[in-house]
Amino acid sequence: MSRIKTLQDLFRRYRRPGDFVIAFLSFAFALFLAANLPFQTTWVARTKPVAQPAFWPAVAIGFMVLFSTLHMIGALVSERIPGRLAEVIQWLKALEYVAWFMAYVMLVPWLGYLPSTLLFTVTLTYRLGYRGWRWSALALLFGVVVVVLFKTLLHVKIPGGAAYELLPGAALRSFFLTYL
To answer: What's CA 131's distance to the chain center, in Å?
Structure first.
């Protein structure tokens, strides 16, 4: 009989340490979108409300404001659970990988897609704690597979690196710019 729940059990609120922070951020973002809605969409004269370009974005943002407000109220009236700062610090640690990716994106125009990808995969593998020549070889193999997949098989247009201009011979330079 433990599988049967009452209505109160179904709507009981189980707060987590970072719940208030998420509630506040989603509420602030919803208000930001609502404040910018008039500048991003238009209402056309003599058009049905449902056919208006601004109607569905307004409905979506209206519901975002409503539900983020309810989430914020729920977070404010719930008992405080210790550990909010530790939870937020854990979220902020994830921003390190955003920085790694941004560094990779900034290196590609300088070094080229292949060298940047190889450097990125090996460095990130080492950063994640996988050390040794086997992990480095696996990271290099993964980098080569990614470059071959995207540049050669999928024909994704990624600009060649400035370092490719230093290669001797037009044929080698052209090969690197096209395939690597």
So the answer is: 27
